[in-house]
Amino acid sequence: MAGRNNNNPFDQDNYTHNIDRNNERSLDRRGFMKTLVGAAGVFAVASLPWGTLAAKELMGLSDKEYPHKKIVDVKNLPVGESLEFHFPSEHDSAVLIRLEENKYVAYQNACTHLRCPVYWVKEEREMVCPCHHGKFDVQTGAPTAGPPRRPLPEVIVEVKDEAVYAVRVKRYEA
Ligand code: FES
């Protein structure tokens, strides 16, 4: 072609010719500064005592307090027995177990494998998921057998005026 120097790889038809390298560098600097300022902000917020709580809350990792809900009168739940209830919403199925005279534990009982309902088996003193033979430690909610890998979310309970109340849900970091 006339007028073209075919030995020069950077001629006018090369698609990199229109990049303004100085402009590109200043954009890079601006982007880097923004990232730096953002990271400093997150660090500043997370390093304050309330900031840690706020950051955890934003990430959904803090324990969450709900309006207290009465589950049962103490006299109506013998030692060793369990009772199903819902907390915090009517869609969140949970189970309360009276382990000893003054010891109660409660967990949301949707299996952490595929959400089948988990039951308390008194004779075996274990929480069992019938779907794929999953089992959970009643003291901690941790999985002990089968496919589940995450613990059951614990519902913190309190005894007040001879009744058991659900007060909050303990969350676990992934
Ligand atoms: S759903 Fe519970 S073990 Fe699979």
Question: Could you characterize what this model shows?
Answer:
By secondary structure, this protein is an alpha+beta fold. It has a domain at 64-170: Rieske Iron-sulfur Protein. The protein contains two helices and ten strands; from the N terminus they run ααββββββββββ. A four-stranded antiparallel beta sheet has the order 5-6-7-8, with no helix packed on it. α1 packs across α2. The model is unreliable at 10-19 and 41-50 (pLDDT under 50).
How would you briefly describe this protein structure?
By secondary structure, this protein is of the alpha+beta class.
- What is the tally of beta strands? 10
Instruction: State the helicity in percent bands.
Output: 10-25%
Roughly what fraction of the amino acids lie in strands? 25-35%
CA-CA gap between termini = 64 Å
Placed side by side, the strands forming the largest sheet appear as 5-6-7-8
Largest sheet: 4 strands, antiparallel
Output the CATH homologous superfamily of the domain at 64-170: Rieske [2Fe-2S] iron-sulphur domain
* CATH second-level architecture of the domain at 64-170: 3-layer Sandwich
Evaluate the radius of gyration: 29 Å
Classify the oligomer.
single chain
CATH class of the domain at 64-170: Mainly Beta
Structural class, from helix and strand content?
alpha+beta
The kinds of small molecule bound in this structure are: FE2/S2 (inorganic) cluster
Order of helices and strands: HHEEEEEEEEEE
User: What's the average pLDDT?
Assistant: 78
CATH topology of the domain at 64-170: Rieske Iron-sulfur Protein
